[in-house]
Structure formats: structure tokens, C-alpha cells
Amino acid sequence: MIHRYTQIPQNHDYYQNNNKKSFCPNINIGKILCWVFSFTTWICIALSVHFLTLDYKHENSNACYIALVVSYLIYIIMEFCSSTSKYLRNKKTGQEMYDTMGTFFSSPPSIIFDCQCYHYNIVHYSTTDKKGNTSYHTRHEKMITYSESYSLPYYSARDVSGLFYINCDEAYIKKKLYIKLELKEEINFADEISYMDYEYYKEQFWRRNRFRDVYMDFNETRKVPGLVHHNLIKISQKDPWFVNFGFFMIFTLLTICEFYKLYINTLFVYQQFKIRKIISTRYDLNAPDNEEKYAKLNPQLNLIREQYKYEPDSYNYINKETQLDLPTQEELEMAYKYKDKIPDYKISLGDEQTKEGVIIDNPNYSNYDSNEPPMAFKPVSGEIGLDESQINVEGAAPVGFGQPDFQFNVIPPKGNGEYMPNQKPRY
What we know:
Layout: E1 3-5, H1 29-53, H2 61-80, H3 83-89, E2 91-92, H4 94-106, E3 110-128, E4 134-151, E5 156-159, E6 163-165, H5 168-173, E7 178-189, H6 192-209, E8 215-223, E9 230-234, H7 245-253, H8 257-264, E10 268-280, H9 288-294, E11 300-303, E12 308-310, E13 316-318, H10 329-335
Parallel strand pairs: 2-9, 6-11, 7-10
Antiparallel strand pairs: 1-3, 3-4, 3-8, 5-10, 5-13, 7-9, 11-12
Helix pairs in contact: 1-2, 6-10, 7-8
């Protein structure tokens, strides 16, 4: 028999932060796992062949066959998820990369808020074995009651990626045939008033959703739609017949893909570039008075020793349907506190490390907490749950919310230390 309760068990670390950094950033865990499952698969194949040659059925043969299937499937999944697989699937010539970058430069960015509202049911149930012995168990079921995705509206966007320069000299000196180009996106706000509007929309999103259920998981995504992060660019007249995704698949199925990857990676050199976008909720970033300000940040291409080179006027996006009124003086004064949130991009003058015209990378401009709640909702974010007295499935905020003396009612501890207060269930 199953009994369901709405009280939340409080001893499970269910919350995960998307921005957590690896404790060992210099170790490629994926590559290690690929080798581990390669060796495991080889061992299982050898044992399976051995068992098949016996005149009798070995007691461990079935376990070996199951282990072979499981390890082989995991190995294939790991290989197809590897970065080498992603690069080979996006192999391009110089002209194709040239056209692709033009598309990325002209694509408007998006900032998306996602939420998932839910609670946990405690389920008590019993099982009976063949001998008639009854065991009693408890499990926690996550019940999702509402989810929403919301795209931040804005008036205009501008690409400020600067010079896209592929350093082929390094590749030619090292006699490489391809460049593994990793593209990343960096989306920021052009002015303080836009950042204040962003904070407003974010708080409104939380306000209409946080009170729907006990817990709410929130995630913010900033992206350039359609951006392909892993690209393999052919920079030489030579194009070995075995450097393609088809051969990668063959070597993967033969369980010797790691040796194939070791060899073809000697033909590659790695480079990275950021597609940078800024958005404004009130101003037209394409207006003539902004040209001088952003002219040096306009996207430019210098690909394969100037074989593919251009300098467009600008790449901008205007959405007149979402234009807000120009800010008042009072709004500007209120937004001034966000001045440190606005990036100040610097252009390289050219040295041994960077080419003239390239944007000098500042990692701080890429940093944002994808799970961070608005200030007003910090007391009920992450692992902290709301008491049922303040839950409204329609999303309406409790009476008095936003007032200085308002207090959230969070889940109280239960029993004699059975549950820790204000935490999600831990398994």
C-alpha cells in the first residue's frame, strides 16, 4: 500500500549549480573515461571469446556477456559525446567558415529565463519476497506542477566581436592541416538602464512563479541561436581521406577510436574565439550617434592569411515591437548603481600575443550566475522551500509581499532530527 504526503523530506542534496567549476580543471575526465571503457570492453571481449570456446557453460559467462554489452554501449556514447566527434561533424573549408561567421555575427542574441516548480511526495510502500517476508520502504517522488520559459525582450542588439583572426602562421610552422576552432558566446548589456530593466523582468518572472509550489529551480541562459561551438577548419591543400566523421564512426565501432583520435589530433591546432553581443532595452544601438562609439568593435574577418577578409558596416538587430520609452532622469539615477555591470571592451594595438584589432579578453565579462535569484527572493531560493501557507498555484504573491516587514514562511524541521530544516531531500 502506498501513502502520499506533501511534507518534504529534508536530507537530500538535490540542488545543482550549473556554474560549479571542476575541482581538477586540468584533467580531461571524458578522455580518461573513454580509455577506461575501451579497456573494459576489450577485456570483456577477450573473456567472452574464451567462454564461447569452452565445451561447457561457465557460471560467469552470462555476467560477462552483460558486462560486454553495457561497457560497449557506454564506450560508444562516450566517444560520440567527445570533442573530437563534435569537431569532425562540423568540418568546414575556409569559404564555409567565412559564410558561417557572417551568419553568427548577424544573429540576434537571446536571454532566456526557465523555471520548474515542484514539491516532493513521500511514498511508503511494502514488498514481499518469495518466502513471504514483507519489507517496508520509503521513497521520495518529485512532482513537477508548473514550468515556464521566458525570453527577455529588448529593443536593439549589436555585435561587438571585433576582429575574427585565425592565426594560421602557428599552424603552418607546426605543419598542421586543420584548426580546431572553439566558438563561445558572451552577451552583455550596453548601458545601465538596460541592466536595470533586465533585473526588473527577472524579478517579475520570479514574482509570478515562485509561489506556485514548495520549490522552484531557476536557470538563465544567454546564447546566440544556432551558434556551433566546435568547428574544424581546413587550412591546407591536403585533406587526408581518413579525417572525417565516417571513419571516426568506424573506429568507434571497432573499439579502437582512442588510437585514431591520438593520431588525427596531431594534425590539429586549437584556437578559440568569442562572439560578443550587447543589447539595449531603450536605445537604438544602430543610431548614427553610436557609430563612433562602437566602430572599432564591429566584426571583421581575417581568415587564412587574408584569403577571406572583409569589414562590414555593422551587424545590428532592431525589434521595434519591444521598444520602451526613453529613460527619465530619475530612472537614470536609479540605474547608475549598475555601472560596474557594463563591459568596457579594449582593443589590442598588436603585439606578440594578439593581432591589432582583436578584442582583449576579460573573463569577468563572461561570468554570470545562471541560478542567481533577485535580491527579494534570496531567502527562498536554491534548497529552501516555501511553507504551504504561502503557496498559490496561480502564482499570486502573498499579501504584504514587497513590504519591509514581510517574512517568508519556510518549511519547518520535523521530528527528532529526522529532517534538517529548509533543505531538499538527500538520497
